[in-house]
Amino acid sequence: MKTFIQAISQISLQEPLSDQWFSNPHVPQNIFNESIEPDYKRFLSPMEARRMGKLMKRAITTSLDVLHRSHFENVDAIISGTGLGCIDNTEKFLHAIIDNNEDCLPPTAFMQSTHNTISSQIALYLKCHGYNSTYSHRGTSFESSLLDAFVQMKVGDIHSALVGGHDEMTPDYFNMLGKLGYWKKDPFTIDSLKKADTIGSISGSCSLALLLTDSPNQDALCQLNDIELMYAPSITEIRSRMENMLIKNGIALGEIDAVVMGLNGDIENDAVYHQISQNCFPNIPVVWYKHVFGESYSASSFGAYTASMCLKNNLIPPHLLYNSVARSTNISHVLVYNHFQNKDHSLMLLSKI
Amino acid sequence: MNKIVVTGLGVISALGWGVEKTEQALLKGKTFVGKMKYLNTKFTDLPVGEVPYSDDELRELLHVDKNLSITRTSLLGRAALHEALRSADILQNRPKRIAFIAGTTVGGMEKSEQYYIDFLDIHSDYKTEYIALHDCGACCEMMAMEYTGKFDMMTTISTACSSAVNSVILGANLIKSGCVDAAIVGGSECLSKFHLDGFHSLMILDPELCKPFDKNRQGLNLGEGAAFLVLETETSATERHVKPICRLSGYANCCDAYHQTASSPDGEGAYLSMTDALKSAQLQPSDIDYINAHGTGTESNDESEGNAIMRVFGNNIPPISSTKSYTGHTTSASGSLECVISILAMVKNFIPANLNFSEKIPSLSFEPVKNVVTNVTLDHILTNSFGFGGNDSSCIFSKI
């Protein structure tokens, strides 16, 4: 059973619900970056929009938009990845506990704080009684969701799935992660991010909805051949799992036209990518995307998006090319490789339809 | 079709650490929910099902370095994981590819809520290391830290109170599709002020011992714990010369799609998850010999679940109990904890009681099992696990 990415919709620091970033991106200027909000009136009534937090609005909107783009009314499964869940509500409830010394707490923030609020609200909205789940595993939350949908499609339990990657960066969480060295301290340029000689990256809020199906219609983006998660693998293991993936799918390493990687300008993060690409994907064009979308727990979903767009448009735009390896103009097969703190690693193999 | 079997179990809850202690406690037919000892909250009168060890005692039992920063959820997870791995002998005598999947809802919240003011102060570096342990994935990684390199993949599920059963389902699907040969699945959650205050704000905590399926039920008692199951194919168990404990014969995950926290009155999500689980097990409702209900003791859950059970089983309702009356509601761990309890009941031929029950819910046709039943043969058992947001899942286990 083959699986396909029918369509993708996003809200991030790029033009919302649009693919404009692929040819004409906004260049991030700040270390803390807010998303550009779309006109929610197209998707939500003013009353609904008022009741929902930012992340919820974005998740529902990207989900409805991707269904609309795909000409699908409903799906068999709704699966979301989110590293922090509805962190805004979690913070509200934490503050209330401290400020009110546990007394007279409003339940709404608690009710909407659980990570699965996103998937379950989408189900409520679509009246979808099908499979519903939520993954929260650091930087591979999105890949975990996609893997779940992929294996269920493989065994024939489902035929379509709405897969999401949704995370918002609140100012408080940004500051907390800043204490751990997550963010750049000084002004940056795209060139300085590429050089990656200091710690830290730039932040972004990411909401992405993807429609995975075994029966695509004609404007589908690409085929998802395979996806794997790895935990704390050695370089040898990464190489052998990548080679096995290619063999299983009948594709030679020489046929891979690009590797999309989660390079983010952090010296330690990027060193791992350089080491892996030298050992596993030498002489293949490297594509990056976090300089366009920023870093967040769900940022890796934009790696799959970038690869899908390159395949659909048969093109790697210069602003996404990380190195200067020249290759054929035909983009047929793309690997997406991401890691989080060199522990959680993921590999996806996508092909032109 | 290669059958999926259970070859290892690990558990820690108010009943103690280990399957033996758990079985003995269940057979005693008395609750382990009681006075709060360790959680730092002002609501100390609320009964809870606490694991009977402090953090320091857990560290000592598990040989965890006293300087290592680790959350209680990860400590509990470690205890259960350690036992599960040992009982299945899966690391020394390993199949090729193993996945580790844990469910948790508030991750490292029990530490974050203590140090939050310092977390927010950009000039303070007090307990900063716990910021890195706040998210669910970090908690899961810390459970498995001592086995780094042994697991081929790892992920964390967060579907509130059904998290652990959804990790059983993912593990089974990964095995079925050939992605891995074995999966260690389950969940862990410790008590936190965040959870206690949250459930309190929803006014669904019983100030006394919870009374699942009782007409006068007033809500749930919170508990804490962790439980893991080792799943693999029958072929893999045979090749490793490990005797399977039972079979995972069916499972389903459906969404109630009714309300963010309340259950639909007719229990549509629960009805669908039970019927789909029966379908996937290729069993009839009459084949089920025992139901371990989600049975939280809240007004909304028990009526909704009861209605769904009546819709599925009609006039032929099997014995039902909610063992949350022994352990409290262990939230993210409850799904796998109750899988372990149900499996113990099946292989040791007993039915645990639904404690504190006195009066039937008028709209329901059944009463739960009031006293422990022994010397009973159970061939197929069904366990329900439901979460906020209508995340409803059911699993069926069968004798080998």
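Strands of chain A lie at 3-11, 77-81, 131-135, 160-167, 206-213, 222-231, 258-261, 286-288, 333-340, 344-351.
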